[in-house]
Amino acid sequence: MRSLLVLLLGATTAFTQTAQAPAAQTPPGPKQEKPAAKPPTAKPSTGEQPKPGVTVNKQAQPATPAKPQTPLKEFPYTPGLDPAAMDKTADPCVDLYQYACGGWMKNNPIPPDQARWSVYGKLANDNQRYLWGVLEEAAKPTANRTATQKLIGDYFAACMDEAAIDKLGIKPLQSDLDAINSLKSVDEIAGWLGKQHLAFQGSGMMFGFGSEQDAKNAQETIAAAAQGGLSLPDRDYYLTDDARSKDLREKYVAHVTKMMELAGDAPEKAAAEAKAILEIETALAKASLTRVERRDPYKNYHRMAFTELAKTTPHFNWNDYLAGEGIASEKELNVQHVPFFAELNNQLATRSLDDWKTYLRWHLIHAKAPFLSQNFVAENFNFYSKTLRGVQQNAPRWKRCVRYVDSDLGEALGQVYDAKVFSPALKAKTLRMTKQIEDAMQQDIQSITWMSDATKQEALKKLHTIVNKIGYPDKWRDYSSVKIERVDFLGNVDRATIFESKRQLNKIGKPLDRGEWGMTPPTVNAYYNPQMNDINFPAGVLQPPLYDPKIDEAPGYGNTGGTIGHELTHGFDDEGRKFDAEGNLRDWWTEADGKEFERRAKCISDQYATYTVVDDIKINSALTLGEDTADLGGLILAWVAWKAETAGQNLQAKDGLTPEQRFFVGYSQWACENDRAENLRVSAKTDPHSPGKYRVNGLVVNMPQFQEAFKCKPGQALYRTKDDMCKVW
Ligand SMILES: [Zn+2]
Question: How far is the CA of 527 from the centre of ligand 1 (A)?
């Protein structure tokens, strides 16, 4: 949760946007893709119609109540290639996404509690319903529960006891609020913050702090401090001055005011407080790196002594802070972005103690709101889900509680989940596919003509060092020291958070644990981490329709094979290529090879920059370049692996599609989605992935195999000659 690995380097690169939109600000730990321990949040704003670009859900604005759901005993089966999800009236050479996903989009409107709806999101929702059943069972206080069942069951029971939580109101925060109130000077903030950060998820309160692998020596884990301190999803929200941004800021101030009122302040006082909070956050936003800058690992690496940092921040006592964190003996750290801390110091020097108390109170209330009584939960939802992302109603209590268990005790929940849904056969099959895809990458590296032998040797060494983690970790995390009570929900959240914070800090100076996982087993996602040089495939992403063991190989290799290839290619995208086989930030490219790589990558970013996300907002292709490169390289590798797997076989057409066409439709069907315009606006600023439509159409224009499979002709939208195609890997 507080590993700064990604916070700092933007390192871990996941396959898709998190199925549930994260709430505010940089979510905790292994990057944006890890769901924050908060429900999604958003709002239908000015009633403007989005311009065509991506398929935007234009259905009824009034909230239609969500259909009541029940726990699942088994996953509903959806085939890995579903003819009913297609729109065969569309021409695949004009719009493959519509051809493969038109039926899906029509038949799968966005549920009222979701910011977007996708094949991934739907599977994640099925997963949650399945885990709901598991947790309901575990929550029954019977004598024969295992320790793991008791842990996750009691946590779930406390979360579900809304009546008890409502009765308490803001009381669970009272002692923390009193502590803020009794601060006697700005100098005392550091010591208080060090302690408070242990129970804090994410980097919203002033800055982020934790441990990470040293960028230049991946074997070494060091302390790290990262920019943060904001409550809106990105620095740009504070700094852009178009009408929509100004309107959102006004609504944000109104929200902060409301929350301060709920915490007991008079309306006028609350309004003045909200103004001061916006001022501090705006100053911090100005001094923050952009998301594109955060993709450059060199811009995020400044290792120094705490005494050196202290010279930049004389108004922040690092000794007190480290004592609060319980790691007073640490001498060095990585400071992600020094100017940010200089500005933080400036704010500490110039703002009144009262303004700082207001800021700290707000961040405390904001961070813990999802775990408080319904009035806090509802107001938090109203701004972060409804206004910001267009979500019509909050997810039912059970669903939020399942997410919190997964976020706080994910490997305990995952242990129970994997035992039920993940077979050794599935693990073996996935490993086989992975091996074939690695072989394809080896062939590719050996045969490309634009790279020198010296760079090829380094690339091959890196390829051969990648560790594949499939299904679940070899060693489960031991949560036995976390005290979970059947009442005291917020206390459980805090204790689980402190456990995780200490676990992260405890890694400093210790030998690296290469077995660690950055996603929980039920997660419907996958990632590559350049510092660990590993690929992780949780069991959650290996279920139908994403991986369907009952169907022919073509769609399976297109879909799961494409995802494996995607993660592998991340090791060699514009960010991943800067790390070597050991996970160290080191330039192993000759100058000419590096230049040629950049030229090839630019072809992709120029292409994606022409696509519209929503309104007149184009894809920020400097932000999505790594993902777009991984999509293209990944599917090319999956194709080669599929051909190797089926060599000599007489493959049959099915559902009116040739095997080659089934490969591409199978690939495309992972990406089917419907999205709200509001959510697309947030994604355009924050999501390093392109919208699903372009992850399909933008990719296949660069594959001659696609042109052949569908016999595309000059003049058709997705037709390109070989000479015009982009290719990196
Ligand atoms: Zn990715």
Answer: 6
